[in-house]
Amino acid sequence: MTDNLFFEIVYRVTPKENSSDTSQYYDFDWDKIVANQPEKLKILWANESSVISGPVNKLIHTAPILTNQCHHDLTILLPDYDQGKLGTLGSAKIIETGYIPISNFQLSIFHPPNRFKNILKKGQFDIVHVSTPMRGPFGLFFLGGSVIDMASKRNLPIVAGAQTFNLDTAKSMIPKALKFTSPLIESFVKRQESRMHSKATINFSPSVAMDNYILSRKGVNSNTLVRLENGVDPIYNRQRRNKESAKRQKHQWAITDQLVVLVPGRLAAEKSLDRLKAIKDLQNIKIVFVGDGPERSKLEKAFPDAIFTGMLRGEELADAYANGDILVLTSEAETYSQVLFEGLASSLPVVVPNKGAFVDLVKHGQFGYKYNNDDSLISYVNKLVKDTALRDQMGKVAMSVASNKTWQKETEKLIKMYRLAIYLNQQANPKHKLEQISIASLNLK
After folding, report:
1. More confident residue, 9 or 179
2. Distances in Å between the alpha carbon of 285 and those of 249, 261, 306, 317, 343?
3. Closest Cα to residue 404, out of 230, 247, 266?
4. Which among 25, 68, 408, 415 is most buried, taking Cβ atoms within 10 Å?
């Protein structure tokens, strides 16, 4: 083994014809994996939506590292590209594919696989990366699903991100009058997720909750699943509380003695923000909603004493975290929660539902609490409000949990997943077949 070994990969080599030996195991080092690969990869990255979300946030932070620092050739397919919202995305080539806006979502439909035939042919890509791929009903073709279909037909290696509970998203978009269609929608979504992720060479997931979700889909092999999390920008830190910009921000909020209960993220129905009604009358707190979305006007009526900052980015957003005292999240369908880790990096104790990714991501009693109902939500927030020493202690633990998460490290993992997928794809030969024992057990932490 060489010093640049990324991780130990164990394969079972299919025995030669007429051989009874089924116990041959070999270790492959990193030099062997990359031996026949170009130093500069040609990558096609397809994102199902351009709305700010976990997958889009990963793209925003990863694209500049892939292109400007690691010098790979990146082409991005996006329904819509707004540089003001998404940034320059490094030196990537961006192709806008179009979309239909529905309920504040961007549905990237009407993309038959053949539409991407020339893009794949001309691009001569080494790897195809698709975030949260999906297919639509009634002959409608979504961007990610169509790219996977065509890439699979051309025998290209595919890395697919399992980053969204598509079923919850689909159900949230069903009008009340059509709720009776939920069983049909559920059956369809499960079938399409199975179809998409079973075609991927490697699937990646950010959490145990997402692992369980995607592995429950028929045909998705656990051996293809790898952990890939997000990084945290170093601008999120507690020291910002003493910066003049942060002090000005808090002055604008007109908060003096009250503690700030920070609620960052998209103001949407699937975030279950109505749950916060349980704590809105607690003494000595001010709820601050940081973000925007379709539920804002409804929430402003329900929380007349709360502060709504609207969408904040960059330094302003980092100042908002620094001005917080307690981070409270209510979504029960999180696959990872970037805002959780931004809050932890800013030394905030957290109170979250004991559901979704939070079940495994948050250690109860160490840097926050997991609630099961309104009574426990009230109890945990009240406990943190009344105990300054407890907030400080949990805040220090929170900061240490987030301290080792960097976008550079996670992007380097992603590149190695690309190279592993390319290698596995090269071995897809009946005469020299490699059966992977367990990608899921690889040390990607």
Report:
1. 179
2. 17, 6, 10, 20, 18
3. 230
4. 415
Q: Are 315 and 235 in contact (CB under 8 A)?
A: yes
How much is the pLDDT for 176?
72
Distance CA 158, CA 148 (A): 7
Tell me phi and psi for residue 161, to 5 degrees.
-90, 120
DSSP string, 229-294: -----TT--GGGGGSHHHHHHHHHHT-SSSEEEEEES---GGG-GGGGGGTTT-TTEEEEEEB--T
pTM metric for this prediction: 0.85
For 201-250, write each residue's pLDDT tens digit: 999 999 888 889 888 888 887 777 888 999 999 999 999 999 999 999 99
For the chain, list the domains and their CATH numbers: 9-231+406-436 (3.40.50.2000), 238-402 (3.40.50.2000)
Q: Where are the beta strands (DSSP E) in 152-255?
A: 158-161, 202-205, 225-227
Comparing 11-25, 253-267, 286-300, 317-331, the range with the smallest average pLDDT is 11-25
Q: Is 215 exposed, middle or buried (0-12, 13-18, 19+ CB in 10 A)?
A: middle
345 close to 240: Cβ distance less than 8 angstroms: no
Beta-carbon contacts of residue 412 (< 8 Å; ≥ 6 apart): none
Cβ-based neighbours of 138, under 8 Å, separated by 6 or more: none
User: Distance from CA of residue 126 to its chain's centroid?
Assistant: 23
Residues in contact with 163: Cβ distance below 8 Å, sequence separation at least 6, in sequence order: 54, 55, 58, 131, 132, 205, 206, 210, 335, 336
| CB atoms closer than 10 angstroms to residue 407 | 18
* Cα 379 from Cα 427, distance rounded (Å): 56
For residue 441, name the pLDDT band (cuts at 50, 70, 90).
very low
CB 207 within 8 A of CB 218: no
Q: What letter represents residue 171's amino acid? A: K
CA-angle at 65, arms to 63 and 66, nearest 5°: 65
Q: CA 76 to CA 45: how far, in whole Å?
A: 5
Instruction: Give whole-number Cα distances, 51 to 101, 178, 223, 327, in Å.
Output: 10, 25, 31, 23
Distances (CA, A) of 108 to 52, 65, 119, 144: 15, 26, 17, 9
Q: Which bin fits 110, alpha (ψ -120 to 50), beta or left (φ > 0)?
A: left
